[in-house]
Amino acid sequence: MGAFLFKFVHINNEVCMNYILFDDQAWNNMLPLTFTRPVCELRAGILTVSEKWQKFLKSPISYLTQEYLQVKYELITAEENILINGSLIPDAELVNAVNQLELNEALVANSIILAIKLDKKKAATFRGNQTEPEKLKEYTSNYHKINWPWEIFKNNDEFIRADFKLITEGRKSAAINSSNNIIESENIFVEEGARIEFASLNASTGPIYIGKDAEIMEGSLVRGPFALCEHSTLKMGAKIYGPTTIGPHSKVGGEVNNSVIFGYSNKAHDGFIGNSVIGEWCNLGADTNNSNLKNNYAEVRLWNYESARFIKTGLQFCGLIMGDHSKCAINTMFNTGTVVGVNANIFGEGFPRNFIPSFSWGGAHGFTVYGIDKAFEVAEIVMSRRGLALDDKEKQILRYVFEKTSKYRMF
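Structure (tokenized):
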């Protein structure tokens, strides 16, 4: 999603506040998911974090992120600006506290800047927790901040429930065809244009949200909390255990448990993914499976780019973290706690390593470099199938990621 371009609106002779979502240290720890986006563009629940903020604020936002990402995610400043930590999940109390800030005052908690109000000059040079605010206001209420990739699926139950309420409150669901087996229909919301036939939807364990023009094909079994976003499809006989999110313009079949697919990605055939996060423009080949539990039931460790080592997750169940544009062939098997970078292409028998760098080509028997021009060629074909183009901004970002991650491809 790109930045919003907008003009300031005057209400009662006052200029509406300009909101900016900024990245802090969480951006580094959320890699590889954030190689291609600010933290606030991560999908957590039904909506991305930025979409949540826009709904609460009733205002568009712009971005303060890594310099190479600003070509796509634009920064817009005004005479007065409220900068909000883009890894925060909004709620009514937090939003109210943010809007009460005075100029040059920061809302802080645990030495973290949650939000700060700055003039045009200071907003353009603001750098997260490296900035020393003039005035501090301590935030003493509970808040939710995403700091690690696994928190996306770990907290997806809470995120889906909150988004479901935010999106559907005061609205009426479209009708559900009587051919379906429904449990607790009051916890199911279907947008206009969605199609559901001969499926089983069990919302007794959590809400189920079906987006505009989405489709659930015959024989699918869905257990909430679950979100199928706009223009996405559950293939025939799919088995979905919540809390799971399938982002927009995606196709999913087989078995999925407690996972988040950001959007524009396919897992169209049989196979299992669990406790996983899959980026955009990914494709998982038929009978792709990931392990989400170690044979010895031990705590899962996950590759962390910031510390350049595997770190503890505190989780017994943790599957696959996959960056944008990555693909895997049929019968691919992923070990517990595998991290795949951006634009990797994985194939062949056996289990590949559990850290696969960006722009890698190969599998368990070894990798070579996936050349940038070849990667562009594939991305252009994939995106054109959805009526979108790999434009110069996207290429510039991917080229930067290719160069930035070269040190990991010591094949």
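The chain has eight helices and 39 strands. The chain has a mean pLDDT of 95.
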